[in-house]
UniProtKB/TrEMBL annotation:
GO BP term, pick one: siderophore transmembrane transport
Protein name from the UniProt record: Outer membrane receptor protein involved in Fe transport
Keywords: Receptor, Signal
Endpoints of the signal sequence: none
Source organism (scientific name): Schleiferia thermophila
The organism's place on the tree of life at top rank: Bacteria
Length: 832
């Protein structure tokens, strides 16, 4: 029978009414509730099963199960990595029941840090236990400090929270807080200027990370996604931390019969301890401050309003005086001495506000509306003049002048000047929703975003080497005499030539429309469980009028049997429409017609739990291949990215990631990870060069996160992090790209922290006076334990000595810009 369009609404109304009537006559009961962890955090994808009926908890740990009224019914709760739980209930007709269930991890021993929850074996992200932040050693102790220790993730700068994932740069990473995308300043060029990360570790309640192959509900970047959820206070509390590098204060508050919660935090950080170990003697004045607040209010049991606000001010001032760097080899030892005059002044101010409403109109439906605004005002002012001296040292071990200057190889001067200003506003409004059925979960979302960016880019650099202003452009004039002989006259330049000079203004206003649809389910097949997720994203940008269709899917299969193993396959497109940084080229020109960069992911993996030393260990191995199109090439110096603003390359990235985590020391979690990777690009205008390494091509990387304690006194603990990564490629400035690419030396670093736990959460303290505290510990951190001077970039100096030309070679010397040396930091943490 064909139903006409005019009658279709009537037919639908009749069918809905019939279903309602049928339901009213059914002798059913309804069980609702919430499932949380032992820390009070909601658990997602918990299976609830009773008499052949099943359902799953949503992202807030809530569930609804409708089933026939039968006495003596048992309800079972199951989630991988947690102890199964059950409860007995006598179900009565037309009656609703509500329960709060707490699931506990399979092992809950002293101080255990569950680095990766078993939940991530089902979902498509790695779940990191927040407790892992407590004993993390190193200058970067926030969430990013943990992320950079995972497989596939690399970082070569301990003063920066940026990280690269599987060959991408930091601009290719997504970061969400409470479901809203957050941004970082645009103009940062050095790690020491970066300041505080947006993510406040004292406010974090849940951490999820994916290094590739993530779901369609996440946005449009090529590499990774970091999804942070801030916690909701359950009672009044206070957290305080102080160290030589700053401090923080966080207050938990509740009120209005527990319907209102407030989480407020202020942070202060200074990098003077780190900067004092650099080669440059200077008056450093870094001041980084941050204030955040997260408020929630439950209007009803079904409707909650929340607000997230952030204000950040990162000021970095420096007045350099002199720099001394020794470098070279045993055969040729060199020393660069630079005398400075001038000052650098960087000021980055960001503001962020987000208002959200979460509605649960039915037991199976969750709806969310959110609006947010991000505003950044950035200032880069510097005017630095310098005079340098390049000297060769006496390297004869038997000489009385060993280590002294033998002769001056080159002298020169330079001046760097900038007056850069940027003001950007990003506003977006979005709606997301989920609908849970007995067969699976549907998800959808729609987002509108507008961007308004004003940029003033004025910067120049001049280099003078022994009276020769670089670049030194000579003019060659060809002339012919009456006999036909050809002569060449060389004319020396007059006036000042700048090594680099940029002066531009830009204003970009645009809008974006984004949306997605997603479906996930679990099926019994082939004697096991098949977890399936598929979705489609849409992205339209008014600036270049490009519409993108982005499909993504993931399959996970867990066979039955004695082996606890899960197989994973992810396929999908991960396109990245340009943001302002990619559109601005090296000279400040803006390309508004730039097309989206495209990345197609293939990720396969095996996730297995094995027993070693009578304890469970999780071993994950993943292989990935990414086909890259319409790439925008860039130069990398320190943490500064300078794009070509052209879709001028294609390429690929491929690699193998490995990780094992478990209780190497009984009761506490540690892990080891290793990665092999290569990422290459082929320039469209120079295909004869073949595939060249991208600036983030790091062939091998390994990291260790290890914890231990004294067996006779577990209150004495140690945390250690180790990082090793092979060198990344680089070329001298204004040097054409060829296959003869140089590489920075390997990055090697060990940080260790020693702690004395004065009061452990949930346990009585040795001293009764400390029992009024929730937790407390003090400790000492040793940064860069082996005092290895890692290189982040190079300063290029030319060997020209006008006074003694016989010893000049005209070569360019790359003088290493070293990172921090060995340092000691004291730290104290108190929680009430």
């Amino acid at each position: 029978m064909i139903v006409s369009d005019k009658r279709r609404p009537l037919v639908i109304l009749v069918v809905v009414a019939f279903c309602i009537v049928q339901t009213s006559f059914a002798q059913n009961s309804v069980i609702t509730g919430k499932v949380v962890s032992s820390d009070g955090l909601p658990l997602h994808m918990v299976e609830i099963y009773c008499r052949g009926y099943q359902t799953y908890t949503d992202e807030k740990g809530k569930y609804t199960l409708e089933l026939p009224a039968v006495k003596n019914s048992w309800v079972y709760f199951y989630l991988l990595g947690y102890r199964k739980d059950s409860l007995r209930v006598d179900l009565q007709s037309n009656k609703a029941y509500n329960f709060r269930t707490v699931l506990r991890p399979l092992s809950e021993e002293l101080g255990e840090v569950e680095i990766v929850e078993e939940k991530s074996r089902i979902t498509n992200t790695t779940v990191i236990e927040v407790k892992a932040l407590d004993m993390l050693a190193g200058p970067v102790t926030g969430v990013e400090g943990l992320i950079r220790l995972l497989p596939g993730v690399t970082s070569r700068n301990e003063m920066s929270s940026q990280y690269n994932v599987r060959g991408g740069n930091f601009d290719e990473n997504l970061v969400y807080v409470n479901g809203i995308e957050v941004y970082r300043p645009f103009l940062v060029r050095n790690g020491q200027q970066e300041g505080l990360s947006f993510i406040n570790p004292d406010m974090v309640g849940n951490i999820e990370f994916s290094a590739g192959g993530f779901d369609a509900r996440y946005g449009d970047r090529m590499s990774s996604v970091l999804d942070i959820t801030y916690r909701k206070p359950e009672k009044f509390g206070l957290r305080s931390e102080a160290s030589f590098m700053g401090g923080s204060l966080t207050i938990d508050a509740i009120g209005l019969k527990n319907r209102f919660t407030a989480l407020s935090s202020i942070r202060y950080r200074t990098n003077e301890l780190l900067l004092g170990s650099l080669d440059t003697d200077a008056d450093f004045r870094p001041r980084f401050t941050d204030a955040q607040v997260y408020l929630t209010y439950s209007l009803t049991d079904k409707l909650e309003i929340s607000y997230l606000g952030n204000y950040s001010r990162n000021i970095y001032k420096v007045i350099p005086s002199v720099r001394t760097t020794n470098f070279g080899t045993i055969q040729q030892s060199l020393r660069l001495t630079v005398f400075f005059d001038g000052m650098e002044n960087y000021d980055f101010t960001t503001r962020f506000s987000a208002l959200a409403a979460d509605l649960r109109p039915s037991k199976k439906t969750t709806l969310r509306w959110a609006v947010s605004a991000f505003q950044t005002t950035e200032q880069e002012y510097f005017d630095i003049a310098g005079a340098y001296r390049l000297a060769e040292l006496d390297n004869n071990l038997g000489s009385d002048q060993f280590g002294d200057i033998r002769f001056i190889r080159g002298v020169g001067g330079f001046q760097n000047y900038a007056r850069n200003l940027l003001d950007a506003i990003v506003i977006n409004a979005q709606h997301t929703g989920t609908f849970v059925t007995s067969r699976g979960t549907w998800g959808w979302g729609l987002r509108w975003q507008t961007e308004d960016i004003i940029d003033r880019y004025k910067e120049w650099e001049t280099i003078d080497s022994a009276g020769y202003n670089l670049p030194h452009f000579r003019r060659h004039i060809f002339r012919t005499d009456t006999l036909g002989n050809v002569f060449v006259d060389t004319v020396e330049p007059t006036g000042l030539f700048l090594f680099e000079s940029f002066d531009s203004r830009a204003s970009v206003v645009s809008q974006r429309w984004m949306g997605y649809g997603e479906y996930s389910a679990r099926h019994k097949i082939w004697g096991g469980d098949l977890y399936f997720t598929a979705g489609l994203r849409l992205h339209y940008w008014t600036l270049n009028q490009q519409m993108l269709f982005i499909p993504r899917t993931t399959l996970k299969f867990k066979p039955t049997g004695p082996k606890n193993i899960i197989y994973r396959l992810s396929l999908g497109a991960y396109h990245q429409p340009a943001f302002y940084r990619e559109m601005r080229d090296l000279r400040g020109n803006v390309n508004t017609s730039l097309r989206a960069q495209e990345s197609y992911h293939l990720v396969t993996g095996i996730d297995q739990v094995v027993t070693i030393w009578d304890r469970p260990f999780r071993i994950i191995t993943e292989y990935y291949f990414k086909y890259l199109r319409n790439l925008v090439t860039y130069e990398l110096e320190n943490v500064r990215l300078r794009y070509s603003a052209l879709n001028d390359a294609d390429g690929f990235a491929t690699g193998l990631d490995f990780r094992i985590n478990g209780q190497f020391v009984k009761g506490i979690e540690s892990w080891f990870s290793a990665s092999l990777m290569t990422v290459r690009e082929r320039l469209r205008d120079q295909p004869e060069l073949g595939y060249l390494p991208r600036p983030t091509d790091q062939l091998f990387n390994t990291s260790i996160y290890f914890q231990d304690y004294l067996p006779k006194d577990p209150s004495w603990r140690v945390g250690l992090t180790l990082s090793f990564g092979t060198g990344i490629p680089f070329n001298p400035p204004q040097f054409p790209r060829t296959t003869q690419t140089f590489r920075i030396p390997p990055y090697r670093r060990i940080d260790v922290a020693f702690y004395k736990v004065l009061k452990e959460e949930g346990k009585p303290a040795r001293y009764k006076a400390l029992n009024t505290l929730k937790a407390a510990w003090i400790g000492a951190e040793v940064f860069n334990l082996l005092a290895i001077r890692n290189t982040i970039s190079y300063l290029w100096i030319k060997d020209i000595n006008a006074a003694n030309p016989d010893i000049s070679t005209g070569r360019q010397f790359g003088v290493p810009n070293y990172l921090t040396n060995r340092l000691i930091n004291l730290k104290a943490v108190v929680r009430i």
